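Much of what follows relies on a compact textual record of a protein's fold. Each token is a code from a learned vocabulary of local backbone shapes. The record below shows the convention in full.
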Amino acid sequence: MHKHSKIVILGGPGTGKSSVLQELEDRGYTCFKEVSREIILKAQKDGIEQLFLTNPLLFSEKLLEGRIFQFNEATKVNQPVFIDRGIPDISAYMDFKKENYPSSFTEANKSYKYHQAFILPIWPDIYTSDNERYESLEEAFEIEKNLIKTYSDLDYQLIEVPKLSVKERADFILKNIEQ
């Protein structure tokens, strides 16, 4: 296991990423939470219900800033770091929304490379809408397709995490980290 590994956990909305990251954190691993929730909640305080829907580019620029910050922070940690969603997720979501974005997004995808990428597949049984989730199950599958394409185009070998209990999913990830 590389000391400075940056491991991204990705997947469509509602696939259990937060639960798995919480489990890894409970086991003593450094985990960086999804930054978009913070941005959404701050925007809601400022009276913007869904910043991604209102101003996708501004939302995505804030995300990019937050994720680059996380990436750089992860570099300082002397053990593997698990990150909830990566920099390439941003352009994948923009592609899903058919929104234009500056080349700086694509440049960031190439400049900041994660050591490994695990994907949690859409799992209709656990998919539920919470107050910060506005996607339908069909949209969730579309987002997943965009994520897979974006990461594959960047030459990531996505490792699919099986649909098991949170504990077993965390075990699977830990067993499959590159030594």
